[in-house]
Every structure is written in C-alpha cells, then in structure tokens.
Design brief:
heterodimer, A: 114 residues, seven-stranded mixed sheet, four-stranded antiparallel sheet, 0% helix, 50% strand, B: mainly beta
Chain lengths: 114, 110
C-alpha cells in the first residue's frame, strides 16, 4: 500500500540554523500539507500546497518557513533560522482530492532545536 | 473557538470491552476524520465520514456523525491491547486543512 515517507526521522540543530525537512507524498496525490505537533499538544496545521503554490497557511507559518516541490516526487519544508519553540514533530500529509478526501500522514520528523 | 474537542481526555478499559470516544466541533464541515497515534509515532488514518453521512463502519470501528449537534463518536468494539493509543478527530472545513482536537488517550488493560 502506498504511503507517505519523511526524512530524516530525527534532527537536532542549533538555534539559528536552517533545516530542511523532506517528504515524499503518495505518488498520484495532488494536495500536500505540513502539520506540526509540539510535545503533548494537538496537531496544528502549517500549510497546504496545490498546483505548485501555497493554497492556505496558518499564523504559525511565518516568513521563516517555506515549502517547495522541487521535482515530481519531493515536498520540502524549510525553516530558515530555527528557534527553540520550533522543536516539535513535523508531519507531512498528502491527499488526492480537496474537501472530500482523506489526508494520509507520514511518520513525522522529530526536530529538536538547542 | 476550538474545533474537534475530544471527550474524554483519557479512557482506561479492560481488554474485550468497547471504547467510545466523542468529538465536538463548532463550524460546518465537509468531513470528519479519525486518526490513531501510538506514542511518539505518526498519525494513522482510521475512517472518514462525510457531512451527509450519519454512520460508518470499518472492521471493529463504528463512527457516527450528528451535524445538528456538531458531534461525532468513535466506537471500538472488542478492544485489544494493541488498540492502546491516542485517538484524534479532525475536521475538514473545506479550507484545505484539518483541524485537530486534543485527543483521547485510550489504554486497554489486559
């Protein structure tokens, strides 16, 4: 069964450093998402992406964040200058249809900012 | 206002019993989805129920949706130790995002 994959599974970085989290969505999906979950808290939406552009973003997704689909398979989340409060589990998700479809989540990347 | 609030926050039952978790939300939705998360792991999709559906089954799972009350319930029948996890409801309001609740921590005691 196709699944969303994410790399790395864990990343430790120093405050102020740039990180890139990578995702390979399910191959025939058209909608891509990033969510995050701070330890012990609920899963929060960051951004959705369709047709090579951002379609929706949350207040969390400020100028330090960017997303890209550099080729036909990868979907990346970049944090330009990490802060301590960026420490969280970051989930990528993909879906085939807008509004009526399931979102399938990857296993997550646990980011720790020191 | 908060969407997708689960109730109870924690539930502990004996293996073989049924587990019921509830979710309430505040705005209109396209669909509501339930996910499971094992400790520190990813989100596994369980079931999606559309706004025009009232009940849906998948194996030992039964989901109901009452749009007039803006609530949903997830029933797991004949629970197993492997069902121990956190369960989240997530609402799709058509704005290209899911809004998650805080989740219910379910513990199945052998």
């Amino acid at each position: 069964e196709p699944e969303v994959t994410q790399t790395p599974s864990h990343q430790v970085t120093q405050m102020g450093q740039e990180v890139i989290l990578r995702c390979v969505p399910i191959s025939n999906h058209l909608y891509f998402y990033w969510y995050r979950q701070i330890l012990g808290q609920k899963v929060e939406f960051l951004v959705s992406f369709y047709n090579n552009e951002i379609s929706e973003k949350s207040e969390i997704f400020d100028d330090q964040f960017s997303v890209e689909r550099p080729d036909g398979s990868n979907f990346t989340l970049k944090i330009r200058s990490t802060k301590l409060e960026d420490s969280a589990m970051y989930f990528c998700a993909s879906g085939g249809r807008r509004g009526e479809g399931t979102q399938y989540f990857g296993p997550g990347t646990r980011l720790l900012v020191l | 206002s908060q969407q997708g609030e689960e109730d109870p926050q924690a539930l502990s039952i004996q293996e073989g019993e049924n587990a019921t978790m509830n979710c309430s939300y505040k705005t209109s939705i396209n669909n509501l989805q339930w996910y499971r998360q094992n400790s520190g792991r990813g989100l596994v999709h369980l079931i999606l129920i559309r706004s025009n559906e009232r009940e849906k089954h998948s194996g030992r799972l039964r989901v109901t949706l009452d749009t007039s009350k803006k609530s949903s319930s997830l029933l797991i029948t004949a629970s197993r130790a492997a069902d121990t996890a956190s369960y989240f409801c997530a609402t799709d309001q058509g704005a290209q995002k899911l809004v998650f609740g805080q989740g219910t921590r379910l513990t199945i005691n052998p």
